Amino acid sequence: MIWYTVLVLAVAAERMAELAVARRNARWSLARGGSESGQAHYPAMVLLHTGLLAGCLAEVWAVDRPFVPAVGWTMLAVVAAAQALRWWCIATLGRQWNTRVIVVPGLPQVTGGPYRWLRHPNYVAVAAEGTALPLVHGAWITAAAFTLCNTVLLTARIRCEEAALAAARGVRA
Asked: What is the CA angle 42-46-52, rounded to 5?
């Protein structure tokens, strides 16, 4: 359980790095006339992702979940792949990547990197990590709860993002 706690804390540190990148990119976008959408769902997203990390630790420690190697190592590989995909998204979007929905008018749609194949690859990374991270150490209740809540939240988030991008292009979503 100690190594799992270290893993969850490492993911939390990675999230803090993402927030630093997002803040910098938000300042850049807003300085160039960007407008933010979806402010209403952002606090729920922060709460859900914080709850994921806390739930992972609480469930594993409180219920004394065992580490099952066949599942644990496989899910750890999924977590690593999700991190790689997320940072590929961040690198591909550059200053346009953010944890908030901020669209700068006039910028072309990004179609390189993972966006060549998927419309929302960052959300694939979020979904994969949110399911896999708890399952590394058997926290299946946290995995199920996060997956359910994340599905609802991402449905709203993707609709918001698509509408903001369409509005910036001057077309209906």
From this structure: 140
Structural domains of the chain in order of their starting residue, each with its CATH number: 2-169 (1.20.120.1630)
Span 54-88, pLDDT tens digits: 999 999 999 999 999 999 999 999 999 999 999 99
Sign of CA dihedral 126, 98, 52, 144: negative
Determine contact, residues 98/29, Cβ cutoff 8 Å. Answer: yes
Rounded to two decimals, the pTM is 0.91
End-to-end Cα distance, the chain: 46
**Sequence-separated contacts (24+) of 41-44 with Cβ below 8 Å:** 41/153, 41/156, 41/157, 41/160, 42/99, 42/100, 44/153
